[in-house]
Amino acid sequence: MAELAALGHGVEELALEPSPEYAPAFRVLWQAGAAGLPAEGDEQLALLEPLTRWLVGRGRALGARELAAALTTLAAFERSVIRQFTHVDAVITPSLAMTPRPLGWYDPDDAEENFAQQVRYTPFTSFLNVTGLPAITLPVDVTDAGQPMGVQLIGRPGGEATLLAIGAQLERRLRWQRRHPPQW
């Protein structure tokens, strides 16, 4: 944030209005999306990862009313987010809620736990899939282990040019192109 201010950008804190109905509706959307995967019968379903198989099963069990209710909820959420962002050119969030996870961190067997882990790891990105707002992720720092960490810039509808301009300014200021892993 200090780097953006140093570039002359106004910076203010913004918190999205709570939406307790968002997460359950988003889960329904993911399940419904998976329902269309071309995997039929036990033999093909067995080839899927447990999480994907779980999403497919849950999605195919959804009723039309449940899906319609979720879509209505998400449409209202979309309008709310866009309204909340109208007074700013861009919003910055962390890209991820945690440092890069080690191999094996996601539960390979318990699909519901795996889904919950993914939600905890990427809480700042799913709502952009729903709203359709433009976003870019920029590496801005590294962990003590040398793993890149990023921020996500979110724009207004049609605001891609603004995001790319801010992103280019930030990358030049941080000289990210000169950074590389120690083993290089």
TrEMBL record:
Domain of life: Bacteria
Amidase domain residues: 3-164
MF GO annotations: catalytic activity
InterPro entries hit by this protein: Amidase, Amidase_dom, AS_sf
PANTHER family (UniProt xref): GLUTAMYL-TRNA(GLN) AMIDOTRANSFERASE SUBUNIT A, MITOCHONDRIAL, TRANSAMIDASE
Stated family: Belongs to the amidase family.
The protein, known as: Amidase domain-containing protein
Organism listed in the record: Arenivirga flava
